[in-house]
Amino acid sequence: LADFIYHNYVQALNLISMTTSFIVNFQVSHAEATMPFEDDLQDKFFYLKRLACKKDGTSTEVDYVKALNKYEEAQ
Q: What pTM value is reported for the model?
């Protein structure tokens, strides 16, 4: 499930990157247009970019397995 979610975030990041390129090209060709959504798009881009970086879950996984082992031994 985690890999599925991770790949969805990477896919979203790629879509945002393509959208950002489109917006830049649109701005150049329509300089008079105002785009209030631009700041929101930038915020979402950075948020998804942070999420796209796969976190090292090894230590968390090891701690979880240790806790499970201790739980099983205690029973």
A: 0.34
